[in-house]
């Protein structure tokens, strides 16, 4: 399949280990020569996902989510409370000689999702454009997916030397999407040899387990239908990435691989408590 065609895994809900394992299996499939793949999904239960490098004990910092299911992601960044949101994952072929984060894919993807958000009546801009005079003023910048904040502003405040907030959506990187001063989209990457996985969360409504984080509906968006938002995101990604999505399910081999990954990693208490 040529690079101008890709696979779209239609919107579905999964549990914590299943969602993370399918993302990993998808990355491995594209890494082995499979087509570029976009997956849109939800979570069966409110779930707190820890960034790969976060300590499990630090989840005590957020009491509102203390009773939620918890999983450790394979990508970096802060903890995310997955509830009333749309999660996307994109597995994309890369040159095996490429090093570091794929910033072009990161920015193209966020540009496309910003256009999708605009279709529901909101203006979403990268944090590098919104500046630091928003609700996050004084919060430290994060380095999700191992990439440094690319804001070139030399006037770095003393407050930026504080430890990163526990929650991803209280952190900021240059390309995070901001609406009315609030972060509504953040993403992270994990690389294979010949492909990169980028996944991220678009907040739709504030969760009772993270009421401090509004979604696009709370900020005046015209819909809280995840189905409508997912269709709009897929369409805008198709235009931006210049790729035609063909709807297709996961292969049997990918499902089997995901089950093994879940057993070894995302459903394994040792993986969760490894830090």
Largest sheet strand order: 7-8-9-10-6-2-1-11
Query: Can you count the beta strands?
Result: 11
Give me the secondary-structure category.
alpha/beta
Any idea of the CATH class?
A: Alpha Beta
Counting structural domains, the number is: 1
The CATH architecture can be given as 2-Layer Sandwich
EC number: 2.3.1.181
GO molecular function: lipoyl(octanoyl) transferase activity
Domain BPL/LPL catalytic: 32-245
InterPro entries: aa-tRNA-synth_II/BPL/LPL (IPR045864), BPL_LPL_catalytic (IPR004143), Octanoyltrans_LipM/LipL (IPR050664)
What do you see in this structure?
- It is a single chain.
- With 275 residues, the chain is α/β, with parallel strands linked by helices.
- The protein has one domain (5-272): BirA Bifunctional Protein, domain 2 (2-Layer Sandwich).
- It is built from 6 helices and 11 strands.
- The protein has an 8-stranded mixed β-sheet with strand order 7-8-9-10-6-2-1-11, with helices on both faces. A 3-stranded mixed β-sheet has the order 4-3-5, covered by helices on one side.
- Strand 8 and strand 9 form a beta hairpin.
- The longest helix has 16 residues, at 16-31.
- The chain starts with a strand and ends with a helix.
- Mean pLDDT is 89; it is low at 135-159.
- Pfam families: LplA-B_cat.
- It is an enzyme of class 2 (transferase).
- This is Octanoyltransferase LipM.
